[in-house]
Automatic annotation (TrEMBL):
Mg(2+). Can also accept Mn(2+). PROSITE patterns: ACETATE_KINASE_1, ACETATE_KINASE_2. Pfam families: Acetate_kinase (PF00871). Catalyzes the formation of acetyl phosphate from acetate and ATP. Can also catalyze the reverse reaction. The lineage of its organism: Bacteria, Bacillati, Actinomycetota, Actinomycetes, Mycobacteriales. Pathway: Metabolic intermediate biosynthesis; acetyl-CoA biosynthesis; acetyl-CoA from acetate: step 1/2. Mg(2+) binds at N8, E385. It catalyses: acetate + ATP = acetyl phosphate + ADP. It comes from Corynebacterium epidermidicanis. It is found in: Cytoplasm. Homodimer. This is Acetate kinase. InterPro entries: Ac/propionate_kinase, Aliphatic_acid_kin_short-chain, Aliphatic_acid_kinase_CS, ATPase_NBD.
Amino acid sequence: MALALVLNSGSSSLKFQLIDPSADATQPPLASGLVEQIGEPSGAVTLKTGGEKYTVSAPIPDHAVGLSMVFDLMTEHGIGPSQVEITAVGHRVVHGGLLFSQPVVITDEILNMVRDLIPLAPLHNPANIVGIEGAMEILPDVPHVAVFDTGFFHSLPPAAALYAINAEVAAAHGVRRYGFHGTSHEYVSQQVPALIGRDPEHTRQIVCHLGNGASISAVHNGKAIDTSMGMTPLAGIVMGTRSGDIDPGIVFHLHRSAGMSIDEIDTLLNKKSGVKGISGVNDFRELRAMIEQDNQDAWLAYNIYIHNLRKYIGSYMIALGRVDAITFTAGVGENDVDVRASALQDLEVFGIEIDPERNALPNTGPRIISTDSSKVKVLVVPTNEELAIARYAVQLAGE
Ligand code: AMP
């Protein structure tokens, strides 16, 4: 069985999954887990496999050591790299800039190109590079493939991709919309035509990826024509802890009048805003529990979130001209019945009718939740970015 190892590296953490890319999307991965607190005095490796969870605690100086500890733990449980056939390693890379529209096999040259993009993603790309280098050290004979979070949005038309700011400054500093969560938007949007019985070449759709981070895309015949995240993943709809779109003048105000530093404002907008900034919680299960207690801050956070979401859905309906499907995915989108109902409430005049019973069914797989008479089909399609990355990795490794 040809397996792919999928890695998502952060600056001090490394998430991994060992996946059979030919498996059904509902199958759990063969193994998954997390390396935490890399470079700190104490670290931990967690491995989940066969329904069990194993943890090893020890200092982990770097990503390569973390990965070798993962492999030792896998070997103890019969799924080490010498016991199974890992044919490719897929790396999630956050920023591909204008350089990458497609996944690529990683060479020294490619790695240098990813390095060149660090100014666009100063927190994410360095961590991704360290993870790639660590994994290549441990698995030197296996092809490594980079899959870019921005790739699917490389084809955005200029009117959607460019901001109306000074063109010289924008060009000199790479200021434009890149979009993120591309692997998820692509994976989900590719499944929709078959689910609604349409030709992919004639399907216009909106995908709502609502997780802790959240983004919406408009997809016209398989190609993204707009998306809510921008030059950075801070833009767009309200998120768990991120503000989404705000008046850029707020940044100047907070700096000049409130005396906040740029780093403080960065933290405020990325980590202390969004649903959490209004209600104190970012998990929608907690938010719902607070709403049920009639907590006014929770209601306000929910209403702001839904208002924003509806504005984006409405603008993409106009951008697409005709909409065949609206699909919800990711943690909130797949599980939160109320968010889906509120997002599309009272839109019958636009041919959008959610069926309350279908909407309330548990998250067991891809499904239609609109009524049979709804002109616009509404769906829930669970995302699986790791499986998408695994499939790309094995496909490119075989070429
Ligand atoms: P993600 O970023 O896609 O992993 O989504 C994580 C978020 O999904 C969490 O912060 C929760 O807000 C939300 N979530 C997960 N499970 C549920 C659920 N059963 N009901 C409502 N929201 C959920």
